[in-house]
Amino acid sequence: MTVNVFSVPVFFVVFRETLETAVIVSVLLAFLKQTLDGPSRDPVVYKKLFKQVWYGTGFGLLICLVIGGGLIGAFYGIGKDKWSGTEYYWEGAFSIFASLVISIIGWALLRVSKMQDKWRVKLAKALEEKPVTTDGRKGAFKRWCEKYAMFMLPFITVLREGLEAVIFIAGVSFSSPASAVPCPVVVGLIAGFAVGYLLYKGGASSKLQLFLVVSTCLLYLVAAGLFSKAIWYFQQQEWNKVVGGDAAEVGAGAGSYDIDRSVWHVNYGNPELNGGGGWGIFNAIFGWQNSATYGSVISYNVYWIAVITGFVVMRYKEVHGRFPFAKKKSEAAAPLDRAGSESSLEQGHKVGKTSATVEAVSSKEIRE
Amino acid sequence: MAMSLSYFSILPALLLAFSLIAEAATVTYDFNATWVRANPDGLFERPVIGINGKWPLPVMEANVGDQVIVNFQNQLGNQTTTLHFHGLFQNGTSYMDGPGQVTQCQVPDGGSIVYNFTTYERKAQQSGMYWYHSHHQGQYPDGIRAPFIIRDPEFPYKDKYDEEIILSVSDWYHEEMTTLIPKFLYKGNPTGAEPVPQSALMNDTQNLTVAVQPGKTYLFRMVNIGAFAGQYIWFEGHNMTIIEVDGVFTEAAEASMIYISAAQRCSFLLTTKNETTSNYAFVASMDTSLFDVMPDGLQWNSTSHLVYNKDLPLPEAQLVDELKEFDDFTLVPFDREALYPEPDQTISLDVIMDNLGDGKPYAFFNNITYVSPKVPTLYTAMTTGADASNPLVYGEYSHPFVLEKDQIVEVVVNNLDTGKHPFHLHGHNFQAIVRSDEEAGAFDATNATQTQYPSIPMRRDTIVLRPNGNTVLRFKANNPGVWLFHCHIEWHMDQGLIATFVEQPLEMQKSLIIPDDHKAICESQKIPTAGNAAGNTVNFLDLQGQNKAPDPLPAGFTPRGIAALAFSVLAAILGCAVITWYGLADMGAASQREEERRLAGMDGSEGATRKDSGSEASDTKVHSLD
Fold this sequence. Notes:
The complex is a heterodimer.
Chain A: H1 8-36, H2 43-78, H3 82-113, H4 117-129, H5 137-147, H6 149-175, H7 182-205, H8 208-243, E1 262-265, H9 277-286, E2 291-293, H10 294-320, H11 333-342, H12 344-351, H13 358-367
Antiparallel strand pairs in A: 1-2
Chain B: H1 2-5, H2 10-23, E1 26-38, E2 46-51, E3 60-63, E4 67-74, E5 84-86, E6 112-118, E7 128-133, E8 145-151, E9 163-172, H3 177-184, E10 199-202, E11 209-211, E12 217-224, E13 231-235, E14 240-245, E15 248-255, E16 257-260, E17 265-271, E18 280-286, E19 301-307, E20 345-355, E21 361-365, H4 377-383, E22 400-403, E23 408-415, E24 421-425, E25 430-435, E26 458-460, E27 462-465, E28 470-476, E29 481-487, H5 490-494, E30 498-503, H6 505-511, H7 516-524, H8 559-584, H9 589-608, H10 610-625
Parallel strand pairs in B: 1-4, 3-8, 9-12, 11-19, 20-23, 22-30
Antiparallel strand pairs in B: 1-2, 4-6, 5-7, 7-8, 9-10, 12-17, 13-16, 13-18, 14-15, 14-17, 18-19, 20-21, 23-28, 24-27, 24-29, 25-26, 25-28, 29-30
Region (Disordered) (chain B): 593-626
Domain Plastocyanin-like (chain B): 33-153, 164-309, 370-505
Transmembrane segments (chain B): 562-584
C-alpha cells in the first residue's frame, strides 16, 4: 500500500478558499495598479494602498491561524469540537458581512472607472492625507472603514476563508494520516495563487473600464453567492440542531437537508462534503448549492434584484441629478433638500455646521 | 372449538378432541386496562399501562387445551388498545389474534372486547412460554406486556425439573410512546435512530434475587417482553440446558450464554450446585450494538442473583470476555419434524430503511412501507367474496400475500440494513432453514452452498435476522386467517416493517364468524367492517381513497427546482448585464457637474475648511475612491 500523501478533499478546500481570496485581492491590486500606477501616477499613494491590501491579507491569515490553532488546541484539550457546534452561524455572519462589503466596494470601483484619471489620483491622495479623527464617533468609524477599505476587504475575506480551511484541514487530519495534509495544502495554495496572479496580470494590463466591468461582475457573482450562502448557513445550522449533529455527516442524501425548506436537492455536488471537489469551486464563485432552500434561492434572487435596482437608480441619479420620483427642484436647492430627506440625523448634524458647503452636501448624496 | 376441528383429518382430530374435552377447562381473565404509576428501575416514576389497577401485569397461565376467555376493557381514557397473544396460532379464531386494523378494530376508550380462544393447535398441543401484549400503535412498551404460560401434562421434560421460575427481561423507557414515537418518526431523525432505553429490567424490576436450593434442577421460562433491545443472558457458574424456544420443545442443548431478542422465548433447565457456599450473579445484558448512541450513564446490564444462602453477600457480576451466544439455529425440535418439501410459493422480502418525501425515516419490505388499511384486513377477506383471493383488495400498503390451503410457503428475507431484526410470524411457527452470518448479502437459491438445508430444521415464531444477512423460512399454510409478518422491534413496526399474509381467504369466509362485540367496537368508532382496503363495498378492485404512504423523496430536480435555478441564473445574467451597462456608460451629466464642483471645492477648502467642513468633504473623497 502506498503512503497517502495527497488528500484530495484538502486540496479542493485549500484551492477553493485560496481562489476566493485571490479573486478579491487580485481585483483590488489590479485596480490600484490601473488607477494609481498609470499615466498620472502617484507612487506614494499607490504604494501605501498596495501595502494596505497585503497587510489586510497577511493580518487576516495570521488571525485565522491563531484562532484556528486555538480551536484545534481546544479540540484536543477539551476533546470537543466547540467550533462545529456553531460553525455555520459564524460562516453565515462572515458571509453576509463579506457580501455587503463586496457590494459596496464593487459599486465604488466601478464608479471610479468613469472618472478621469487625474481626478482619481487627486481623490486617492486626499484620502491618504485626511485625518481620521474629528467629529462624532459614528462618523469617525465610518471614515476609518472607508480609509482602510483596502485593508478590510482582504482581511475579512482571508479570515473567513482561512478559518474554513483550517477547520476543515484540522478535521481531516484527525481522521486520516497527517502525512496526507501538507502536500495538498501547498499545491492548493499554489493553484489558488496562480489563478489570482493570472487574474491580476490580465486585469492590470487590459483596458481599465473593461477590466473593471468584468471584475465587478465577478465580484457581484461572488457576493450574490455569499449572500445566498449566508442564509443557507443559518438555515443549515438550524437543521443541524434539529438533527442533533452535523447533517453533512449523513452524506448528501436524505436527511442532509430539511425537506420542508427544500427547493431542489440532488445527491451529487455537495460543496460541503469532502471539500466538494469541483462543486466546491462552483460554490465559491457562484454560490452553488446541491440542496437549495427557499431561503437560499430567494435571497440570491433578492440580492440581484437589489443590485439591479441600485444600479438603475444610481444611473438615473447620475443623469438627472436626483432620484427617480423625487421632486424636481432648482439645481442649487435640490441637493440640500435631498440630503435632508434622506437622513434627518445627518441633516441635524450638518445644519449645526454653519460653514457646510454645497460641495459637502452634494458629496453626501453621491454616497447615497 | 368445533370450527377449529373442521381442519383436522378426521381420526386424529376426534381422538384429540376427546382427550381435550376430557381435560379442558375454561380459564377466564377480567382485564381492565388503566393507567397506573410505576418506577421499576428506581430512577423515574412514570405512568404505565396496568391491568386492574396494577403493574406489573398478571402472568397469564393455562393448561394446554384450555379455553381462554379474556374480558378486556379499555379504561385508559386517552388511548385505544388491543391485546395480542404472542405465539398462539389462533387456529379458527384469527379474529382473536389482536393486531389493530388487521384482525380487529382497536378497542376504544371505554369499550370492551372478549378474546376467546383455545390453546391447542391443529397438530400438536401448543404449550410452553408465550406472552401477551398490545398490538396497536407501538403501545406495549408503555407497560402492557407480560408472560403467558401454557403448561402441558405431556411436557417431555416434566420429570427433569423440580421447580419452575418465570423470568421476563425487558428494556425500559422513561418517556411514553406517545412522546417517543413522534420524536422518532420525525424528519429531524433522518437516520431513524431508535430511542435508546434508559434501563434494563428483569421481572419488571431490578436486582432480583431468586432463592434456590442446592442440588436441584429449575426450569427457567424466559421471555423478552422489551420493545427494542435483544438481551444476552448468562448465569455465573452455571450452564443452561435449552429445552424449548418460542413454544417449540427442543432436544436438550447446553449453552453458557443465550441471546433472546425482543419477543423471543427460551426455556432451559438449570441444575444448582451441591453446596451453598456462595451466591451467583446472573446477568441480562442489552445488545448495545442496536443502539445508535450510548447515552452517558446508561446501565445496559441488569444483574440478579441466584441466592443459595441469603446470609452470604451478593457478588458483583464479573466482566465477560466476549458476548458469544448459543446459536439457536442449531436447535433440533423435540418432535423432529422433517424439512418441508420444496415450496409452492416463495415470498422474497428485502429489508430496507429509507426516507420518504416527508423526510421521515421509514422501513420497507421491498419498496413498500406498511400503512394500516381503512378496513381491518380480516374483515376485507370476509366481505369481498371471490375477490378475496386477489391481493389487490387488501391494498398495496398492507403488503398482502394470499396463501392457498396447505401450500408450503417459503419466505426469503434479505437484510439490506446494518441492524439486527427479530422477525415474527403470527399464526405459525416456521422452520428456519437458512440463517446466514452477518454481511452474507442476499440469499441465492441457485448457490448450492446456500441450500444445504438442515433435515430437521429449528422451528420458532421469532428469528433474528443478522445485519446485511439473510434468512429463509418455511411453513405450511394450514391455518386460515390473516397473519402479520413483521419485525418485532417496536420502532420498526412503527416505521412500517410489516407484511400481511392472507391465508385461505375463501375458507375464512366459510368457517369464521366475527363475534358481534368485535363488530360493535368498529361501529362505535365508525370504522368500516366491509369492503376492500379503501372501504369500497361495490367495486372491490377499486382502491381509490385507500390509506397511502407518503410519496418518495424527489430523485433530483423537480419542476420547482428547475424554475428556481432558471430564475437564479436569469437574475445573475440580468444583474451582470446591468452592471456592464452601468460600468460602460459615461458619467451622467448631473454627476459630472457635481464631481467637478466637488473637486474644485476640495482644492479650495483643502487648508481653510478642513477644521469644520473638511470632515464632510473628506467623507466624500473617501467614498469616491473606494
